[in-house]
Amino acid sequence: VQLQASGGGLVQPGGSLRLSCAASGLTLDYYAIGWFRQAPGREREGVSCISSIGGRTHYPDSVKGRFTISRDNAKNTVNLQMNSLNPEDTAVYFCNARSFVAVYWGQGTLVTVSS
Question: What is the DSSP string of 42-84?
């Protein structure tokens, strides 16, 4: 089983990026998917999640209205659209997949917001 986050990069303040969480060895629509980030010297924080049933989403206030999580079941990916990025969004972004019996973490992707 492997999860891999991709799509990070350098973007100017106010810009957008779309991250993808791709899986091999598991079908993502059976799992709740979370996106997390960790900035240097700070604890890991959740920035979005989507449930396995019903597709309910949740965002903390820090990203609400700017980030959108969505599933692409045909590609077995979960995407995170990030708009209106600011320097405080700079971090390594990770995805995880959770069921009642397992949690899988992927490799992160670095997002740098800077002019």
Answer: S--EEEEEE-SSTT-EE--TTTTTTEEEEEETTTTEEEEEE-S
